[in-house]
Amino acid sequence: MSGHACGSLRHACAALAVLASIGAGTAAAQQISPAETLLFETEHLARVRVPATLVYAFRKESNVEPGFKDEVRLELAKVNGKLNATLHFLTGVHKQDIPALEEAHGNPVLLGFLEHDIAEMKRLTGGSTAYFRKRIRMALAEGAQVSLQPITYQGKTVQAQAVRIQPYLNDPMHARFEKYLRKTYTFILSEQVPGSLYQLHSSLGKPETVRTGTQPADAPVIDETLTLISVTPKQP
Questions:
Q1: Where does the signal sequence lie (predicted)?
Q2: Of 193, 12, 4, which Cα lies nearest the Cα of 113?
Q3: CA–CA separation, 69 and 89 (whole Å)
Q4: What is the mean pLDDT of each run of 10 residues along the chain (236 residues)?
Q5: Which of 49, 62, 64, 127 has its CA 20 to 30 A from that of 207?
Q6: CA-based nearest residue to 16, from 173, 165, 210, 149
Q7: Residue 66, domain CATH
Q8: For residues 70 and 225, what is the distance between their CA atoms, to the nearest angstrom?
Q9: How many Å apart are CA 46 and CA 105, to the nearest integer?
Q10: Which domain holds residue 175?
């Protein structure tokens, strides 16, 4: 990823180990993919009128452990001419600490979601956070599918773009994480939605696939969705 990309979302770049993590060659020598551009080189917050609070609904469904519902809040304010972002990612026992950004450009909700997901993968499998970050980074750089997708936001149908990746599908080291081989991530973004991020989703099957017999009864199901539900004050 280019220096400009890291400048626009420096904290996310560091957390996802985007520099020198791909193996052969260097990130700087590679062309930035459309998925990377959408997620890391776009000024997601440019159209938000501040001060503002963006609220996202979080839902987890699972047959591995109890699911739950919660929320994520992103508070935006101008301080000394810079856009400050404070992210409250989940609450109570599920709360994840994310450092505040003193000069935000990209939407830090993306960072919070990925870091939460990576921490959960580490907890469930015993794998390393560096490994999971690298697989996500490589999938975005080399194997992401980007498509147009209409969404309904506050009663209106607007155009969006969906980025889909399966980081572990073609990993030669996947044997240790065989049950998570087909885990899919979907990121839905739209310029017509405040903060640009409409929905973030990670899926390893759904409960109904087990009930209907389309997936083995002992197959792990972990489905997490984060969806923008409100912005205050209301954006024009």
A1: 1-29
A2: 12
A3: 12
A4: 39 39 39 91 92 97 91 96 95 91 91 93 89 91 94 94 93 79 94 96 72 59 95 88
A5: 127
A6: 165
A7: 2.50.20
A8: 11
A9: 7
A10: 3-232
